Amino acid sequence: MPADLPGAAAASVSVPVSKPVSKPVSKPVATQVVAIDDPADPRVDDFVALTDVALRRRREPTDGLFIAEGERVITRALRAGYRPRSVLVSPARLGAVPADLPGDVPVYVAGADVLAAITGFEVHRGALASMCRRPPLAPVDVLAAARRVLVCEDIVSHTNLGAIFRSAAGLGMDAVLLSPRCADPLYRRSVRVSMGEVFAVPYARLDPWPGALGLLRDAGFTLLALTPAADAADLGAFAAHLDTADPTAAGPTDSGPTGSSPAALGSAGAPARVALLLGTEGPGLSAPTQAAATARVRIPMAHGVDSLNVAATAAIACYLLGRR
Length: 324
Description:
- The protein has helices at about 55-65, 70-80, 110-120, 140-145, 160-170, 190-195, 215-220, 235-240, 285-290, 310-320; strands at about 15, 35, 65-70, 85-90, 105-110, 125-130, 150-155, 175-180, 205, 220-225, 235, 275-280, 295-300.
- It is an alpha/beta fold.
- The chain has a 7-stranded parallel beta sheet. Strands 1-2-5-4-6-3 form a 6-stranded mixed beta sheet.
- About 45% of the residues are buried.
């Protein structure tokens, strides 16, 4: 067992794969599995209290780990190059352990009651993997090759953030930037909701906020602030003028104080660099962040509806702006 794995110094009791399995295994698993009978076993400490959000928010970044849940997500993490620390699985679901898991990674097997006592919930998705985090990327590195970027301000819902990453990956955005208060993209729920797409989209945090938005302006990005305000420009109209060959093309303008025409979004023969700013549920983008934007844009609503959930808004915006 590698020395940097939890409990590496403790003696492990290996059992044949056939012992804990209650039905035939449909694919190869690691050469050894380790039976866990005690929820307090230090070897499974990575998986303790997964439902305690406050605890996991503090612990996972500090310990340099995150949890991948389910065979598909674990496989995506492995293929993205994340290094596994260990796997925890029920005996009946050993087949959910990815076949390409490195052979030196311990696979801990525990019954349903022990699993629930360790994690705090009933594990339905077959397997959990503790993965090593990577050093955080710098915003300038994320922006270097990007032309379409989502910028999230204070989106604290892990569910919304995971959905935003999935839309960003599937609809052609190059990167995601986060304010300091945004949720952790590698938190278990975010990873699961994104279906592992958080591994496919480069991201970084902008600090100080919103002052660091100047990095995007300096890199030639047009900053579009999404707002339900009636005087904001139609996002669809802006998107229709992106990458126009005629930089003097006329188009709708934002009547707000930070407005600009769609012509400002690109230059002749060069793809536009556009960053779309999304705010948290309820308050939306803060006034200082809107003031830092090049233009304010909106998705027109019908039937008196004020706005959409931020994840739904992101999906529409990514469809309009993303490179497909």
